[in-house]
Design brief:
alpha+beta
């Protein structure tokens, strides 16, 4: 892990099947819920730089860990508090969303415990996760 890039750390908790019982439910999703103040600060900072972000109001502050991948019988287990590291660099790469890169070895371990393959990059190395800030529109920005 590049400690200069992933210069901040925080703690979150896993939430399995968010939205269960609502119209927004999709099975086999797991989020790491994190401190909302992280999202609030970086959305404020982005707005000051001329790139307003519409915060994710549905799931609040989170890191997506599992998206529709069926897991084993440990699904829903208590994995305790999970420490993660995140960058202070806001990414807007896809022209629609804003996020912060997250590094967390423990999330890779959780995926393995649940019988899921690791998230890897094109070089076969463990891939970072991301903390969703919200949506932005490239056409509405000043840069």
């Amino acid at each position: 892990m590049d400690t200069e890039y992933y210069c901040h750390k925080s703690v979150g908790t896993l939430q399995f099947d968010p939205g269960k019982g609502t119209k927004n439910f999709d099975p086999w999703w797991c989020l790491l819920t994190v401190d909302q103040q992280i999202v609030d600060y970086y959305c404020w900072f982005s707005m000051k730089r001329g790139k307003p972000i519409e915060k994710n109001m549905l799931w609040k502050a989170h890191v997506s860990v599992i998206k529709g991948e069926e897991a084993n019988s440990l699904w829903g287990s208590d994995f305790g508090p999970i420490e993660f590291h995140y960058t202070n660099v806001i990414r807007y790469d896809n022209g629609c969303h804003a996020w912060l890169d997250v590094w967390c070895d423990r999330l890779h371990e959780v995926r393995a415990a649940l019988g899921l393959p690791p998230k890897i990059d094109f070089g076969g190395h463990p891939r970072h996760f991301h903390l969703t800030l919200g949506r932005w529109t490239a056409g509405d920005s000043n840069g």
